[in-house]
Amino acid sequence: MDDLALVVDGATKRFYSGSWKGWSIPGLVPRNGKAKMVTAVDQVSFSVRRNEIFGVLGANGSGKSTLIRLIATLLIPDQGRISVFGLDVTREEMRVKKLINRVSVDAAFFKKLSPMENLMYAARLYDMDARCARKQAVEILNQLGIKAESIYNPLENMSRGMQQKVAIARAFLTAPILLLLDEPTTGLDPRSRRDVQEFVLNLRAAHDATIVLTTHDMEEADRLCDRIAVIDNGRVVALDTPEGLKALVARGNGRDPTLEDVFMDLTGKSLKEEGEREG
Amino acid sequence: MTTLGHELRVSYAFVERNFNLVKRYWGWEVVWLVYSVVNALSITYIGAAMERISGARVDTSYLVLFLMVGTLVWHYLAVVFDSVSSMISWERWEGTIEYTFMAPVKRLTQMLGTCVFSIVYGMLHTAVILIVVAFFFKIDLSQANLLGGVLVLLAGSLSFIGMGIMASVLPLLFTERGAQMTNVIQAMLLLISGVYYPIQALPGWLHPVARLSPATYVLEGMRQSLLHNANLSSLWGFVLPLVLSGLLAIPLGMAVFDWGERYAKRTGKLKRSG
Ligand SMILES: Nc1ncnc2c1ncn2[C@@H]1O[C@H](COP(=O)(O)OP(=O)(O)OP(=O)(O)O)[C@@H](O)[C@H]1O
Ligand SMILES: [Mg+2]
Question: What gap in Å lies between CA A78 and CA A69, rounded to an integer?
Fold first, then answer.
């Protein structure tokens, strides 16, 4: 039990959209034909060992971010159970929150505040010692290649990639033992991407962290992940080591298959099939 | 003891962050302060001009003080209400809401920090306006029980905090229109609470409604203590209902907020992109 960092057991999340003249009515799931239902995460089960880097790959809209949010206590699952180090995410929410942090694609900050002010806000929320946190924040930001002078200027002046690095620093700062990375390197230049990848590997090695990573960069997934789940339409369609996944797809035109081949092979089928049925 | 210390330290996160925001948005703060001062002045001048307007003799200095108490008290309550109720809409606008909601922070602790900030900020703001207005008018506070006034104001803060917490939920439920809805609530309170006139001036059917607004008691209590030197014992009639409604409104606000948060997490209203 102890060496399982994360257990997802039959997790399902559906979203309903329906409205009355543009107003959504709380608590009301419209029963008329206009209501749309999306099953974003559909009976997903897997478990992640302690200290593992677990990848989640899938096309746009396949449910990766929804899955991450379910783990991060930002969404309540409709069915199934999720536990982090044996703690149920809905019943023991507060204890789970202490163990996790998350980076999302969009670096969300108080844009007028400086990186330092934003990071200190986060540090205080996690009840870190202020002086210690300030020192660590500078260290982490430096390691990620943020120049010292921009640490104290409003974040809105920074480029998107730089903001993304600050977002990563914010998550690292609180030293989570389960780190949820939702496309952390999207929008970063190749060197920054490398910096972040090194940092992730280092966090795992030095701090015994477990990491769940979603990405659209197949090389990154190959390089970092111990195991990868491929999801399509909210369902896990394959789960294996990168090597194992590659072995699944046929060797095409004499070269070794890559994760990209795996991705092409395993995702988007339902779309094509539907298209064929209609056409 | 250690847990209380923990909650207090964490609640400071919100105080510090909000003051940082005030500092960074200083241009906007100056504009808002100037607007508030000018607004308070122009309302108070109605009192100063009453003799000219009506051509009859009126107790001008009483009228000036009456309006000034109205505009200052309302300003304070509105600032407290605003800064509590915009707690969510601001974070939603910046996109940080998921990060705050993901942190191991009790909602009560978040409210505590937000409320401490709101009260301090509201007091500072109102003090600045008071100083400027006092400069323009000869204010006669010989009949004032200042301590009583502060007591009434603090008691009134409780219910406004409670209402602010309830209103802050709206942006969680109504993604687009929630923030505007809090403005409607505020405008209603302004109308019925006797801010610039005694509630008896309203049509009869509104009197019972006015009696339901905590602001009505704050304003009457403030005027009793500042204009009529009411002693503490006669102020209980205002303080007690305020404290009681505050003790009711805050837990109720928390319950509503809790429900709203769970609703948002069930239906994916916190945020959808990414
Ligand atoms: N809060 C929400 N409300 C309604 N529908 C949602 C919400 N969040 C996600 N969805 C829907 O659920 C599905 C899965 O979305 P999700 O964001 O999880 O995909 P994703 O795999 O992260 O995609 P991307 O690669 O583009 O980030 C989509 O159809 C999306 O429209
Ligand atoms: Mg996503």
Answer: 13
> Which uninterrupted H or E stretch holds B43?
helix B26-48
Interface with A, mutate which of B12, B102, B266 (most A CBs under 10 A): B102
d(CA B140, CA B64) in angstroms, rounded, equals: 10
Alpha carbon distance A74, B102 (integer Å): 7
Q: What is the pLDDT of residues A9-26, one digit of tens each?
A: 999 999 987 654 444 555
User: B270: pLDDT confidence band, cut at 50, 70 and 90?
Assistant: confident
Helix axes B60-94, B178-192, angle to 10 degrees: 170
Q: What is the 3-state secondary structure (H, E, C) of B163-188?
A: HHHHHHCHHHHCCCCHHHHHHHHHHH
DSSP readout, A22-87?
Answer: TBPPTT----STT-EEEEEEEEEEEEEETT-EEEEEE-TTSSHHHHHHHHTTSS--SEEEEEETTE
Contact at 8 Å (CB) between B112 and B6? no
Is B16 in Cβ contact with A121 (below 8 Å)? Answer: yes
Residue A97 vs residues A73, B267, B269: alpha-carbon distances, Å: 8, 20, 19
Does any CB of chain B come closer than 8 Å to the CB of residue A125? yes
Helices (H), ranges, A126-178: 130-143, 160-173
B205-245: pLDDT as tens digits: 999 999 999 999 999 999 999 999 889 899 999 999 999 99
Beta bridge partners of A83: A7, A88
Q: Can you say whether the dihedral through the CA atoms of B224, B225, B229, B234 is positive or negative?
A: positive
CA A63/CA A44 separation, integer angstroms: 10
Helix H or strand E segment including A12? strand A4-17
In angstroms, rounded to a whole number, what is the distance separating the alpha carbons of residues B274 and B272?
Answer: 7
Of A16, A75, A126, the CB nearest to B103: A126
User: SS3 for A231?
Assistant: strand
- Give SS3 for A178: strand
* DSSP states along B189-213: HHHHTTSSS-GGGS-GGGHHHHHH-
Distance of CA A153 to the CA centre of its chain: 28
Q: What distance in Å separates residue A104's CA from the closest CA in chain B?
A: 7
- C-beta of residue A168 within 8 angstroms of C-beta of residue A202: no
Residue A256: DSSP 8-state: P
Dump the DSSP string for A65-81.
HHHHHHHTTSS--SEEE
**Topology (CATH) of A50-77+93-99+176-278:** Rossmann fold (3.40.50)
Please state, in angstroms and rounded to a whole number, the distance separating the CA atoms of residues B197 and B194: 5
pLDDT, tens digit, for every residue of A84-97? 999 999 999 999 99
Report field, pTM of the whole predicted structure over 0.80: yes
Q: Which amino acid is at A254?
A: G
Interface probe with B: pick from A14, A100, A112, A153, most Cβ of B within 10 Å: A112
Q: What is the pLDDT of residues A161-206, one digit of tens each?
A: 899 999 999 999 999 999 999 999 998 899 889 988 998 999 899 8
Instruction: State which H helix or E strand residue A266 sits in.
Output: helix A259-266
